[in-house]
Amino acid sequence: MKSEFEDYLIDAKLHIETAGRNDSFSTDHLYPYEPTSYPVLDRLIESGYIGREDWVLDYGCGKGRVPIYLNHKIGCSTIGVELMDGFYEDAVKNVDSYLKHVKAADNGDIGIVHLSAQKFKIPESVNRFFFFNPFSIAVFKSVMGRVVEAYYGKERRMILFFYYPQDEYIAYLSTIDEVMFVDEIDCTDLFEENDSRNRIMIYEINPAG
Question: What's the pTM value of the predicted model, to 2 decimals?
């Protein structure tokens, strides 16, 4: 398991600052900032579900770790959506620093949007979605409505990734006719505690069921 110190080392290589948990901006509907660990992201990358031509949307991107790292490692285009002012500003600074010092010229686009997830209109190019419990079930239901709406606006293969998924999220996904479970990435061995929720559950928008 990579230690928190190693997280800081990877941040330093990318010229960004994303490590460490922050509870100061959490509310009833928006949860504390806790970045997805780099080993978990490596598992996602190794799975092959995201390719260089894909566009990944990270809801509640915080300081921008996921959009930056996926862009760096895969070369895919990424978008982070963040509502909280402080985290948005940090994410923009991190992306600017990454673009200046690290990003390869032939990698895809990367951007951060300052908006609530419910109000963000999903671009037609986006076909991959990443969630690490960014908000309450009430907000999640609204966001999933947006995702399904975006599919019908332009049909394409849409894959959704849920790291350390909440039971409420999974229960709600089972009620959406257009959503189908397809796979799971086990991450339990990356951490000392034996927590079965350390996994990435993968779903696909599939109207045919």
Answer: 0.93
